[in-house]
Amino acid sequence: MPEVILENISKSYQDGKVKAVKNVSFSVEKGELFGLIGPDGAGKTSLFRVLTTLLTPDSGIATVFGCDVVKDYKSIRQHVGYMPGKFSLYQDLTVEENLNFFATVFGTTIQENYDLIKDIYVQLEPFKNRRAGKLSGGMKQKLALCCALIHRPKILFLDEPTTGVDTVSRKEFWEMLQRLKKQEITILVSTPYMDEATLCERIALIQEGEIMSINTPQGIIEEYPKKLFSIKSSNMIQLLDDLRKYDSIDSCNAFGEYHHISFKSENTELAKSELTTYLKRDRDYKDLVINDINPTIEDCFINLMN
Amino acid sequence: MKQFFTFVRKEFYHVFRDPKTLLLLFGMPIAQIILFGFALTNEVKNSKIVIADYAKDVASERIIEKIEATKSFEIEQILLSTKEIEETFKKGKVKLAIVFPATFNSDLSHQNKTQVQIIADASDPNTATTLTNYAQSIIMSYQREVQAMNRAPLQINTEIRMIYNPELKGATNFVPGVMALVLLLICVLMTSVSIVKEKETGTMEILLVSPMNPLLVIVSKAVPYFLLSILNLTVILVLSITMMEMPMNGNFLLLYFASSLLILAALSLGLLISNSTNTQQEAMLISLMGMVIPTMMLTGFLFPLENMPLPLQVMANIMPSKWYYIIVKSIMIKGLGFVAIWKEMSILLGMTIFLLTMSFKRFKIRLA
Fold first, then answer.
1. Residue B238, burial from CB neighbour count under 10 angstroms (0-12, 13-18, 19+)
2. Residue range A92-116: average pLDDT?
3. Prediction pTM value
4. Among partner residues A54, A101, A148, which is closest to B208 by beta-carbon distance?
5. Strands of B151-293, DSSP E
6. Which of A55, A188, A200, A248 has minimal Cβ neighbours within 10 Å of its Cβ?
7. Which of B13, B205, B211 sits opposite A93 (nearest CB)?
8. ipTM for this prediction
9. Considering CB atoms only, which of B6, B209, B365 is closest to A101?
10. Which chain B residue has its CA at the smallest distance from A75's CA?
């Protein structure tokens, strides 16, 4: 039986005026690292709050290790670790005091589960007498993770843990999650960063309260229906404009230093050479580079969105 | 139990690590007690007055002697003409002038009736009234003296008697009121902010997703503020007894017990506000607006409740401070015991139980 099950969960705010979550169903297996990927306002936090018993769904059933989120909220609260999107520890307490406090709140001690947080805590230890409010963003996230883990939860809910954290700390954070997975803790993580999706075992792409696709990251990429190319020139803004006006282009999106394009026709090689000729001869692009590429999660997301 | 103590300790950290909270907690009571006790008192001390004595006879001189003897007046000058009086008033230093007519004593002895003029600077009507009352009572006391010697019938016989506070000391009136105001304000304000703060910073989210009993959260929030308020009460008492010459005729233990009741009522009210609001600002606004003005108005220490319209008198009954004010006056000034104030104490207890139950019920086990 899956560890987390959602069946047709809906949640709205302001008396139904704002529909945050629309008929969402999915499940997470025990020990899985499951990612909820979507932009801000997609409904990720609402889903997390339903699962952590902080909000009741308007309709639908959700269970966490077999307990109903509405009726059995007390037993769920015993065994989940929750890290809200906003840094939510006591800023005026030191690192050690925060950790001690949350350990006691969950009826345990730091020593009891030290092996679980050891890898993370050793990095915090030099700052253990510093107030939490004075820590750097990455350190705050590590401390919050420690506090969420201190009682060895069965499931860890991490709501946008890497938002506002630098690239190095983000990478470290994901490495920590991979290690935790080995401890057989089920992890549900949400993120707006598409590049982090590939680090999960399975992901759900969510947009405007609806799940667009659930699969392994590889599976989602394989589902992408078209052949994808990247294109580059010295005048990227003009190029984007020209590509979008060009008839046989199906989609064209800016991705950093390249534009990603796909063609309407099945015969992509022909379409590609036609486009190259058009751009070089008619539009006078001299330094044009076109490559075959594999789609990224972001490509899939944009494709599903349209 | 360990959870509870950890929680209480955490609350103490919050208080002691925030200089603003500390200042509010201990600075405000001291400032208020001193402000109300000294600056805002309606007691009149060392008021400068002038006397125009045209009579210069035994009667007028005896009265002047009596005036000199009181602490209320300080005779600046003894003048000779009414013109000079006007000038001294214009300079603004003098608050009151007493004029004895030339025939003062002879009128008194021959007609059993005489006149004395009292002129007061009524730009401050309260002080003026108080001062004229003082002056009148001094003159009356002279009248009684003469009457006792002469056995002559006197036409004016005003009896002014002030029980419990014969010297019209401001402190005896203000201190119990300020005690009620300060304790109520501090407790309500502090606790009302405390739970909302956790909601605002998001820590409440984590606390909710934990096995922590909501009851424990609420109670452990109240404990530090209860202890600090008792400490505060001690500071206020020491200040008012040593500096304000506030009498303490009753039992200290009883006073502390009664004060604990008020503190508990205030803490419960604070928790109720905290559980019903979502931002610190909202909570602070409600506790300040909802507490300061009604407490000042409806406790009875600034304006006598008896003179108020009936609806306000009824409203005053729901103010814990009204009952506490009665209790403190009974214990400290009148020196009464438990039997005299059990009614007021039970009302406070009832309020506490009601407010506490309400705040338990309003505690949200979820975010919405």
1. exposed
2. 92
3. 0.77
4. A54
5. none
6. A248
7. B13
8. 0.86
9. B6
10. B211
Beta bridge partner(s), residue A177? none
Signed CA dihedral, B81, B82, B83, B88: sign only:
positive
- What is the nearest CA distance from A264 to chain B, expressed in angstroms? 48
Map out the domains of chain A with their CATH numbers: 4-222 (3.40.50.300), 228-305 (3.30.70)
Angle (nearest 5°) at CA B264 between B230 and A107: 90
User: Apex CA A80: angle with CA A77 and CA A81, to 5°?
Assistant: 120
d(CA B264, CA B268): 6
Tell me the sheet residues that pair with A116: none
Q: Would you say how long chain B is, in residues?
A: 368
Q: Do B13 and A97 touch (CB under 8 A)?
A: yes
Contact list in A for residue B14 (CB cut-off 8 A) is 90, 92
Q: Do B205 and A105 touch (CB under 8 A)?
A: no
pLDDT per residue as tens digits for the range B66-88: 888 887 788 877 776 777 777 77
Structure tokens at A245: 């006006």
Taking the Cβ of residue B216 and every Cβ of chain A, the question of whether any pair is shorter than 8 Å is answered with: no
Domain spans of chain B, in order of start: 2-40+169-362, 47-150
| Predicted confidence band of residue B353 (pLDDT cuts 50, 70, 90) | very high
Q: Which of residues 210-229 of A touch B (CB under 8 A)?
A: none
Tens of pLDDT, residues B209-235: 998 887 788 888 889 889 999 998 998
**What's chain A's Rg over C-alpha atoms?**
23
Cβ contact B326:B336 at 8 Å: no
Q: Which residues of B touch A86 (CB under 8 A)?
A: 202
pLDDT tens digits for range B159-213:
434 344 545 455 667 778 888 888 888 889 888 888 899 989 889 999 999 988 8
DSSP run (H or E) holding B7 = helix B2-16
Q: Please give the class, per CATH, of domain B47-150.
A: alpha beta
Q: Which two tokens stand for residue B9?
A: 């300790």
- Between A6-20, A196-210, B68-82, B225-239, the lowest mean confidence (pLDDT) is in B68-82
Say yes or no for a CB contact (<8 Å) between B201 and A55.
no
Query: Chain B residues with CB inside 8 Å of A87's CB?
Result: 202
Helices (H), B243-337: 252-276, 280-298, 310-316, 320-328
- B97 near B118, Cβ under 8 Å? yes
